[in-house]
Design goal:
rod-shaped, 5% strand, Helix Hairpins, binds zinc ion, 258 residues, mainly alpha
């Protein structure tokens, strides 16, 4: 606050300008809060999207893996059935051998049985290989499913936490927006537009102090003439290099600044 003597020295217009600066700095701090909270909200929403995308990808991978395993298992079952049939056929032929008396016929049948045994043993080898593959594949599938279940469980808890954080942030944002409307209502639209443009282009700093003749936004020296204007003018003064709205700290005296 100004000491009473100061106000009378500067006049009412000076006080009005001071109030506008105060409103602008309040608006700036509300806008910074809104920006920070919006950023925090975006980070949380991104995390939801990213994690749920990862889980979705894992689910699709497992589905594909399960499909491959099922296909292999069908092959295994088919070969198993074929081997059983071939086994039965071999047994039948062996049975026939006991009824054959002709030596040539017997030899021919024996050759046939030998060929079948050879082909069955090949079939057996293929079946064993397939069984090993399906077993390994199934173990791997179970591992992947457990991993996914663990991820989903973890995510369910984390998501609940994130949603509660989001609810909190949204409440705070709504409050900040209401405050902003109240603060902004005290300024004219043209000034707000100009302020908003500077705020967005200058990294969230539109209103800055001048300290020891230097703009605290861009750290450039403010020319003497302009410093004099900041002190004496009833208008808002903008930094010639960064275009931010300038003000002098309330305690600054004319002697110190000039
Ligand atoms: Zn500047």
């Amino acid at each position: 606050m100004h000491p009473p003597g100061c106000i009378s020295f500067f006049g009412d217009w000076r006080q009005k300008l001071r109030e506008r600066i105060e409103i602008l700095t309040t608006l700036q701090s509300v806008d910074r809060e809104i920006r920070n909270k919006s950023n925090a909200k975006t980070v949380l929403l991104d995390e939801i999207q990213k994690t749920e995308g990862e889980i979705q990808t894992k689910r699709a991978e497992i589905e594909l893996f399960r499909g491959n395993w099922a296909e292999k298992d069908r092959l295994r079952q088919g070969k198993e059935k074929l081997l059983q049939e071939e086994g039965r056929k071999t047994t039948d032929k062996r049975m026939r051998m006991t009824r054959i008396k002709n030596i040539k016929e017997l030899q021919a049948l024996q050759r046939e049985i030998d060929q079948m045994k050879q082909s069955n043993s090949q079939l057996e080898e293929e079946l064993i290989k397939l069984m090993e593959e399906t077993e390994m594949s199934f173990a791997s599938l179970q591992e992947k499913e457990q991993e996914l279940a663990r991820l989903e469980q973890e995510w369910t808890e984390k998501r609940a936490e994130i949603h509660s954080q989001l609810t909190g942030i949204e409440g705070e944002l709504a409050e900040a927006a209401a405050t902003r409307r109240q603060v902004a209502a005290k300024l004219d639209e043209n000034l707000i537009e100009r302020y908003e443009l500077i705020f967005s282009r200058r990294g969230g700093t539109a209103v800055v102090e001048v300290s020891e003749g230097i703009c605290q936004g861009c750290h450039m020296n403010i020319p003497y003439q302009l410093l004099n204007e900041i002190l004496k003018s009833d208008k808002l003064i903008f930094c010639p290099s960064c275009h931010r709205i300038l003000y002098l700290p309330e305690t600054a005296s004319t002697e110190k600044q000039l």
